[in-house]
Amino acid sequence: MFATLEPAPADPILGLMVQFRADPSAHKVDLGVGVYKDDRGATPVLDSVRQAERAEFEAQSTKAYLGPAGNDNFNRLITSLVMGSDHGALKGGRVRTVQGPGGCGALRLGAELLKVANPDATVHTPAPTWANHVPLIGNAGLHLQSYPYYTPGSAGLDFDAMIGALGKAKAGDIVLLHACCHNPTGADLSHAQWREVADVLNRRGALPFLDLAYQGFGDGLEDDAYSVRLIAENCPEAVIAVSCSKNFGVYRDRVGATLVLGETPAAADLALARLSRLARGMWSMPPDHGAAVVGRVLGEPALAALWRDEVETMRKRMVGNRRKLADALARETGSGRFEFIAAQKGMFSMLGLTPAQVGVLREKHHIYMPGDSRINVAGLGDANIDFVAKSVAGV
């Protein structure tokens, strides 16, 4: 039976990981994989998370199942982190939350709910978008259609074209939006642009599907939630997929959540019941360890304060890396061509190189990034920024 299978296409990011590990060069630089790295190139366990893990280990009295909706304490606290504790949608009882295995699980669960709610809906996705959005949402059986978002040549948002495309969405369609720190471009909407997007979605009767994977990595924990809170204030319904991988550093523990905003509390209850049933049919029960740890971090004031400081430290390091790389490239090229890097937000930017140029960087200079020239700015450090800038200028 298996001999009849067609070979699966290679995942470009996972393939880069294999190539990087096999490269014997002492000067190799990994700018591909989307994980936070410190100055030593390591992806650390946060002190707040480590302390919470120790406390959780001592306090845990059972390994019994959680139930399909997951850890209630985590669900409550992550909802408050995303929405703000006094948001009108929370006070109105219109938000329900289900824990999922990572941001990917949260996205897929949201897609499955939308497929049940409107099997004929089209999901409008930004061009470009995170590569895994397409299989995660498309494999739920939803039709995908891209809308303009970013023009690589100008290193800027194509906002007018975006609004024009969204203005043609049909009632009941779904619009996928990166809540902050757009992956792969790092180019985010302004507050005024978010308000315009919310107005268009309301006029067209389209449902916003927000992916919040990097809260805290752009302008800070509160500012990065602006889009979600604005949408929840102005739109009757929404789905929000949340990942804790980056801002808590719990990548391998797979911690995420799907939030659903209903037009009424009764509608939100219907969505919660359906989400729980869908989760039961896919992974039955979510893993508890990471969610319990995140819940403990958010629920204990001292740990929460430590965690907020750690997130801000990570954010500032990436902001600093952006400035240093832009300055180094300006020195090497004698132009301001790469100044956009300093203005963008989060972990990623696209350099605007061709696949052939990216190939030369990998083969000749041992600098690894996907073919679209997306770089993880957290992979930069004082020891390699000048080398990277000189190599990029050279191609």
Structure description:
With 395 residues, the chain is α/β, with parallel strands linked by helices. It folds into two domains: 10-45 and 311-394, Alpha-Beta Complex (Aspartate Aminotransferase, domain 1); 65-299, Aspartate Aminotransferase, domain 2. 47% of the residues lie in helices and 14% in strands. It has 16 helices and 13 strands. β5 and β6 (156-157) form a beta hairpin. α5 packs across α11, α12 crosses α13 (301-333) and α13 (301-333) crosses α16 (385-394). 47% of the residues are buried.
Write the layout of secondary structure elements.
Blueprint: H1 12-22, E1 29-30, H2 47-59, H3 72-83, H4 88-91, E2 95-101, H5 102-117, E3 122-127, H6 133-138, E4 143-148, E5 150-151, E6 156-157, H7 159-166, E7 174-178, H8 191-204, E8 207-212, H9 226-234, E9 238-243, H10 245-248, E10 255-261, H11 265-282, H12 289-299, H13 301-333, H14 340-343, E11 348-350, H15 355-365, E12 367-368, E13 374-376, H16 385-394
